[in-house]
Design goal:
about 30% strand, globular, alpha+beta, two-stranded antiparallel sheet
């Protein structure tokens, strides 16, 4: 739940930024939002996510990138990757989670074709 909760919360905040400024990446003024990273609260922006932050419990690295064929201003792919020193490091079913601005949810390893995604 650490990964999926973090991605869902960040996506909601990014959508608010998009509604307010018409873009997901670094509008002027910079759109920041409150987020707990590794148990510590603070403000986060698109730039912070580009460099990566930890999830609330510290088990995942959270990053953002543009969707293939699009720009960071108009799209995003949020990724949560299990940290080697986190409690999910040995989870072979759900190593990474992704969520896009189109609400596409993914994980690796990917589920079999036509199967429900057990990670989400």
């Amino acid at each position: 739940t650490d990964a999926t909760t973090a991605l869902t919360r960040i996506a909601g905040q990014l959508e608010r930024c998009y509604t307010q400024y018409g873009r997901y990446d670094n509008p002027t003024p910079v759109c920041t939002f409150g987020f707990v990273s590794n148990g510590v609260g603070g403000n986060v922006s698109h730039v912070d996510l580009g460099g990566g932050i930890r999830s609330e419990d510290g088990d995942y690295d959270l990053t953002i990138a543009a969707r293939a064929g699009s720009t960071a201003a108009q799209s995003y792919v949020l990724t949560a990757t299990a940290r080697a020193d986190g409690s999910q490091a040995n989870d072979d079913i759900c190593d990474t989670f992704t969520l896009t601005n189109l609400r596409e949810k993914g994980s690796t390893p990917a589920p079999a074709a036509g199967a429900d995604n057990p990670c989400w």
